[in-house]
Fold this sequence. Notes:
Helix content: 40-55%
Structural class: mainly alpha
Distance between the termini: 32 Å
Strand order of the largest sheet: 1-2
Shape: globular
Amino acid sequence: xxxYDQQVAQDVSAVQNSGVLGSRFIVEATARDxxxxxxxxxxLNAAIEKLLKDGVTAxxxxxxxxxxxxxxxxxxxxxxxxxxxxxxYQAEVGRPDYVAEDLGRFTRATxxxxxAAARAWLRPERRGVLWVVPAxxxxxxxxx
Length: 144
């Protein structure tokens, strides 16, 4: 939507990081040349508001579940990654065998549960915004 339809962003990504004391949902976007940070932020806010109003479709939920599952399983391929995850589960929940339950939180997600979570956690008053804008001198150096 923001990359192809509106063409205000070069790329957009979102990731959710769970933690014992708190979790983060991070949306990152890179403005296209000539698009201000303010305009990109307005477009991101509008996209989030549309999600909160319209909810998540079954196709969107299916794509998200598939992506999470693939990423989760591929992250278990290496011995070090697997050991690190088992250690994390032991430290965080006291059970190194928590892997199936953790993955299950995502594979059981429905359009309704995703929409409910978005409406609970993605409200404007819960957002923090950070702009990273190159200094004019840095932009001039890149063009050389």
